[in-house]
Amino acid sequence: MLFHVLGPVEVRTPEGVVLDQRARKPATALATLLAHANAWVPTPRLIRAIWPETATPTSVEANLKTYVWRLRRTLPAPACGVRIDSRPGAYRLRVDPGELDSEVAACRAAEARQAARRGDHAAAAALCRQALGLWRGEPYGGLAVAEPLLPELDELRWALRSAYAEACAALGRVREADAALRELTDDDPLREEPWARWVRLLTDAGRASAALSVYARARAVLAEELGVEPGPALRAAHAAALRSTARDPARVA
């Protein structure tokens, strides 16, 4: 991959990192173009991103042209031959498939869903791990230009973590699924789905006592933070845990 935005913005070639976020303004120009990859970005939007302060330099457009010129010299050409197009009042960064890590992560997530649907849970788990390994920190290194993209990227990462837990559970890798669901509920305790899946996982693994304990924690969090009782999925998981203990009281020990 050439462009890395799932962490501080970087450009990597076979020779190594050729641009990173220490070059603040060129990196911001690149990040703005990457946030709208293969689309035209108006010059005023680039200027606002690079110089968010009210007082911009009098030579702002000349400076922007200099940054674009540097990027053109730094970035290798894409398959089409032109990396950064320009027209009056706008620029466009061309990104080929497989060059941008956030797009690769989204593709891996789609492939993992397909693998899970056909019952290949080992492939699904591996694809999720590959995608999750692309994250190196806060996307776009915290640059303000990427703020509108963060909810979507956060949700993508959450979906990958959730799918990984589900694949591990389907493979009988209880310890890995247990750890993944614990992390999910720690990170966002108000989402009921991972709580319900965690209760089911522990019940199916013969750990009804732990399942009931997890349910109690979930119920307490929901009551304290939202003032609500568990929803249908979590209640159903709880009922299954109770039925398990009724069939085999030793499981409560």
TrEMBL record:
UniProtKB keywords: DNA-binding, Transcription, Transcription regulation
CDD domains tied to this protein: BTAD
Domain Bacterial transcriptional activator: 100-242
Domain of life: Bacteria
GO function terms (MF aspect): DNA binding
Limits of the OmpR/PhoB-type domain: 16-93
GO process terms (BP): phosphorelay signal transduction system; regulation of DNA-templated transcription
Pfam families per UniProt: BTAD
Family per similarity comment: Belongs to the AfsR/DnrI/RedD regulatory family.
Protein name per Swiss-Prot or TrEMBL: Uncharacterized protein
Organism: Actinokineospora fastidiosa
Lineage: Bacteria, Bacillati, Actinomycetota, Actinomycetes, Pseudonocardiales
